[in-house]
């Protein structure tokens, strides 16, 4: 089953610690990986239709201390809908209101039902249900002129979308990070708060320990979201079923 990763902080951070462990989840999700970051409203997406734990590109990301962003969205893929290709590799992006709108998904949604929710304004480049869900969401936001800050309306729409299958979603327009957990609890989604005073943590997926007080600025604060906990030494909290959390500048601005 695909797995998700996101970072949402008040100032730019690097993804090296979280992605170092997360990449090993490609063992059971070998069909692609991707990582999106933002510079303002412009997204940078690096991805491959290949295993993350065998990728030289991933190694370069772990070593690139210049790669930083307030928001990251990551994904490792098990391709149960759509073949193994670059176009079917998450995260996906479309332009919406002059901003890059990025989404990653795990679960399976009924594509025939999704097609009834689209109006043809946004067209998938690949053949996944996930990218079609992005198109349906973007179409709805445009058709209803719903602002990104109308969290309750977006939450209601996501719950309706969830009726068409299983879904955990991460999406962002570069300012807010939205994280939605499946109404039936499919595959899990959890979060941890990371702020000063930082602790010493160890990765669950690799024999690696990080002394966060030596690596983090005291002014950094924010959240790490993942399908399953990434570290020991931090408290991880499960999302509620059908729950949506929205993060901005390293803080929770909506939770239900």
Supply database-style keywords.
256 residues, alpha+beta, Glutamine Phosphoribosylpyrophosphate, subunit 1, domain 1, 7-stranded antiparallel beta sheet, 6-stranded antiparallel beta sheet, 6 helices, 16 strands
What would your notes on this structure say?
With 256 residues, this protein is α+β, with helices and mostly antiparallel strands. It has a single domain, classed as Glutamine Phosphoribosylpyrophosphate, subunit 1, domain 1 (4-Layer Sandwich). 20% of the residues lie in helices and 35% in strands. The protein is built from six helices and 16 strands. The chain has a seven-stranded antiparallel sheet, with helices on one face. It has a six-stranded antiparallel sheet with strand order 5-6-7-8-15-16, covered by helices on one side. A hairpin with a 2-residue loop joins strand 15 and strand 16. Helix 1 packs antiparallel against helix 2. The chain is globular, with a radius of gyration of 17 Å.
């Amino acid at each position: 089953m695909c797995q998700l990763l996101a970072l949402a902080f008040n100032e730019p951070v690097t993804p090296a610690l979280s992605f170092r462990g997360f990449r090993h989840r490609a063992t059971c999700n070998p069909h692609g990986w991707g990582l999106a970051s933002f510079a303002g409203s412009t997204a940078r997406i690096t991805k491959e239709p290949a295993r993350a734990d065998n990728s030289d590109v991933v190694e370069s990301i772990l070593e690139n201390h210049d790669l930083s962003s307030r928001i990251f969205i990551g994904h490792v893929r098990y391709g149960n809908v759509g073949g193994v290709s670059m176009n079917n590799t998450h995260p996906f992006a479309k332009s919406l209101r002059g901003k890059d709108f990025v989404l990653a998904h795990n679960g399976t949604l009924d594509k025939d039902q999704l097609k009834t929710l689209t109006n043809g304004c946004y067209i998938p480049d690949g053949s996944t249900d996930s990218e079609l869900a992005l198109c349906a969401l973007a179409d709805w936001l445009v058709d209803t002129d719903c602002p990104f800050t109308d969290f309750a309306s977006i939450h209601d729409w996501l719950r309706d979308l969830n009726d068409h299958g299983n879904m955990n979603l991460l999406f962002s327009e570069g300012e807010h990070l939205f994280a939605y957990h499946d109404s039936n609890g499919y595959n899990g989604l959890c979060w941890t708060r990371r702020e000063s005073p930082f602790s010493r943590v160890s990765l669950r997926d690799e024999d690696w320990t990080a002394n966060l007080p030596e690596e983090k600025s005291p002014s950094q604060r924010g959240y790490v979201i993942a399908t399953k906990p990434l570290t020991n030494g931090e408290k991880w909290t499960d999302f509620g079923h059908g729950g949506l959390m929205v993060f901005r500048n390293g803080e929770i601005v909506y939770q239900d």
